[in-house]
């Protein structure tokens, strides 16, 4: 988020696309300030992260 809003706190409120429960992520630069619920995981439909052997699990 630093490149979009340097030094600013950014809060994202969104529903889970699987179950509809509310999700909250708050960040400032590279620091994650708040995560609710604490066990949020991410998923990317497209291939990201370079070669397959170096990609994060998704």
How would you describe this structure to a colleague?
0% of the residues lie in helices and 34% in strands. It is flat. It has strands at 9-15, 22-28, 31-36. It has one domain (9-54). By secondary structure, the chain is an all-beta fold. The model has no long low-confidence stretch (mean pLDDT 83). A hairpin with a 2-residue loop joins strand 2 and strand 3 (31-36). It has a 3-stranded antiparallel sheet with strand order 1-2-3, with no helix packed on it.
Task: Quickly describe the structure.
This protein has 58 residues and is mainly β. It has one domain.
Question: Which percent range describes the beta-strand content?
Answer: 25-35%
Number of structural domains: 1
Shape call: flat
Order the strands across the largest sheet as they lie in space: 1-2-3
Supply Rg.
14 Å
Task: State the secondary-structure class.
Answer: mainly beta
Give the integer mean of the pLDDT values: 83
Overall helicity: under 10%
Distance between the termini: 21 Å
Which segments are poorly predicted (pLDDT under 50) over 5 or more consecutive residues? none
Topology:
Elements: E1 9-15, E2 22-28, E3 31-36
Antiparallel strand pairs: 1-2, 2-3
Overview features:
single chain; three-stranded antiparallel sheet
